[in-house]
Amino acid sequence: MAMTLRLDDGETEALRRQADAEGRSMQDVARRAIREYVARRVRQGHRDAAIDTILRRDAELLRRLAE
After folding, report:
1. Does residue 1 surpass a pLDDT of 90?
2. Which residues contact 65 (CB under 8 A, 6 or more apart)?
3. Among 3, 11, 33, 38, which residue has the fewest nearby CB atoms (within 10 Å)?
4. What pTM value is reported for the model?
5. What is the pLDDT of residues 3-26, one digit of tens each?
6. CA 12 to CA 65: how far, in whole Å?
């Protein structure tokens, strides 16, 4: 699916500099950044869910350890 991404001048210039530094296209750099961002958010969601589970499951133990 195609889409249009509108960047301001500063964002465009930063993306251009990064693409030049990596010897890649601006599109490749932007797509990789999006993939990394999404993957990081998914991992954070899994981490947060695991922490919530531990806090609920081990609430009594954590309370006793804090004493």
Report:
1. no
2. none
3. 3
4. 0.74
5. 999 999 999 999 999 999 999 999
6. 51
Instruction: Give CA angle at 18 (12, 40), nearest 5°.
Output: 95
- Domain boundary assignment for the chain: 23-66
Neighbours of 55 (CB within 10 A): 10
Buried b (16+ CB within 10 A) or exposed e, 22-42: eeeebeebbeeeeeeeeeeee
pLDDT value for 50:
96
Q: In the structure encoding, which two tokens stand for residue 30, read together? A: 């932007």
> Closest Cα to residue 12, out of 28, 30, 24?
30
Q: How far is CA 15 from CA 5, 7, 28, 31, 46, in A?
A: 12, 9, 10, 11, 30
